[in-house]
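Retro notes - structure team

What went well: the batch runner handled both jobs without manual restarts.
What didn't: labels got mixed up in the shared folder, which is why I'm recording both outputs here explicitly, each with its sequence directly above its tokens.

Job 1
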Amino acid sequence: MSHSKGPSIWMETADHQITASHGWQGSDGAVYRAQQEDLISRGKFGDAI
């Protein structure tokens, strides 16, 4: 799936900053993003939600 073809949502900056994936979450955010990347790369989109 190309980058521009995936699903997305829009949210306020303040809301984005408190999500698990935001860069401000430090190493916890990095771990979360790595887990998501792994799931998506294996085609497990439902598990990544």
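Job 2
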Amino acid sequence: MNHFPFILGSYAVFVVLLLIDALSPWFARRTLVRELAQRLKRENRRAAQSPTDPESSSTTSP
């Protein structure tokens, strides 16, 4: 009785799970950095569109 296929399969599953476990924080960090960069761009774009002096741009008269 040869146990080689079972042992090889077990090692293959272990390596795949180990790679998933090792690479998942890297993918999560990459996604977080991308989302933060997009948020920063939106905030900068919004700040550039809004007036710099809120008192001078009021539309209501006293």
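One thing worth noting from job 2: The mean pLDDT is 88.
We'll revisit the folder naming next retro.
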